[in-house]
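Structure, all two chains, one model.
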Amino acid sequence: MKNFAALTRMRIQLTLRNKMFLFFSVIMPFGFFFLYSGVFAKGDPVVVRYFLGPVISLTVMGSFWGLSAALVIFREQGILRRFHVTPVTASDMLASSIVSNYILTLPTVACELLLARLLFHVHDFGNLLSVLILVTVGIVSFASLGLVVASVTNTMQETQVLNQLIWLPLIFLSGATMPLASLPRIVRRFSVFLPATYLVTGLQRAIFVSVPFWKLPIEIISLTFWAMLTFFISAQLFRWEPESKIPRKAKLWALATVVPFVILGFWENHHGRLHAQTQSTYDSLSAPSKTPPPRNATPEKPQ
Amino acid sequence: MPNPILQVENLFKRYGPVAAVRGVNFNVEEGEVFGLLGPNGAGKTTTVEILEGLRTPDEGRVSVCGLDPQRDPAELKHLIGAVLQSTALPDKLRVMEALRLFASFYRKRRNPEELLKRFGLVEKRNAFYSQLSGGQKQRLALAMALVNDPKVLFFDEPTAGLDPQVRREIYDIILELRSDKKTIVMTTHYIEEAERLCDRVAIVDHGQVIAIGTPRELKQRSGDNTRIEVRLAKPEPEGVLKALEGVSECRVLNGSYVLQCPRPPQAIVSLVKHLESRGNELISLEIASPSLEDVFIELTGRRLRD
């Protein structure tokens, strides 16, 4: 625990000194915030509130970029092997990566909410406890995904390619960039296989429809289970040494990370639960008054 | 050996089809500076990394401070300090932060301020790792290896790639640790380093220990002869040069004739006379005092740096 705390402190210090952090954790999230709030929502407080879910999701999902790159650089430069000869364990190293990332991402999320209030006059952020829970499981799960990416790639180039392959569908097909309800049916059917979709819709419903966390069991449980699974797999695949290349067989482990959302995706497509909820939230935005449903209203019946 | 703090028995390690370590055996006594001397790829680093618990041996028994590095890695890491061959720290980590961070991992810790002073890094305490020179980075690596006041220190090629002045600074630090009676296991491919710093040396080649002893014992074993290396305009039959007065052995290495000479002045005189009589010419001549290089040449027929 002591080593984990010391490493977390070090990771925070190093990240704050890194110019890339400024881009990925400050410029990019706030860029998205102003794009969505100022351009897409045209400053309308109700629409800004609707888009806060996707904006915060993008901030949360950004975790996996920075972490995968940092871990691969640490391994390639032989930094990890220096820690390997100390009493530090792989779990200390991985957990400190996630927790430092969590500590650094939360203020960005808080600033986004604060700016929405100060600049765009959004006075109701829905159910903030639900938001906090989803942000927490979201950061842990996407950060763990970043650690898995770092473990299955051998070089920084490979990491960047795999990051792009994962990132693009996550942001374009999950409702993070365009409302799911406005996307073609085939895309919506595919979107339920993506973990990001559950984060985006969960956050959107928590903020826009004020859904309490106990009414978001599938989003919270699926992301929590996925966070634990990806963390476990990243610990299994973790390598200290730059020259220890990962065997192809071990890469199959990484495929296990997609299993929970493949199962959930089939279930969602069969029951249509998530599709109905995203449609109802979207419809409530499109209603003439554009008044979001009051607290405690059921999302299936927007006002 | 009265009190071995480190024991290696019949150690084997393969990387795919390549056998990096093939039946290595040695013991190290407490307070001893023990060197593994050999060319690159001889298996020195693999051996040391097995002792540090970083690699798993395929066969053999290893004990460091009475612990098996595979069974008790967590406990062992509290008792050892290491300077690894290819390693680094994060660029944006400051010198003092690095010392404090690494000290925090251990039960037993030395004062980082004291280490800064001892390793001449006081002025660099707030410098980022990326701002340090090669020598300063290596001094920091040595300081970090001592943060837990370890029982055994492992130095893997501690001066590789450093300029001569920095190398001498590192030698002084290791000699100081030797006078403090620290147990040190170091690898090197520098003859001078092994001779100057080590109480005992194991010469390693192709994954095996081919000779072991104090530098003096090893040199005596090869006759304690002066080595004369000559390049000639025309080739000479090997047996002819060996038969010259003052020469006891002659080998051909990379086009040079390497003569082992118990009586160097006589050997030079007889060599010059012989070449004159044969109409041959001396292109170059090098005289080297007896060293571990001679032992290596005698045992392997190659130079250490070949």
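The CA atoms of residues 275 and 281 of chain B lie 6 Å apart.
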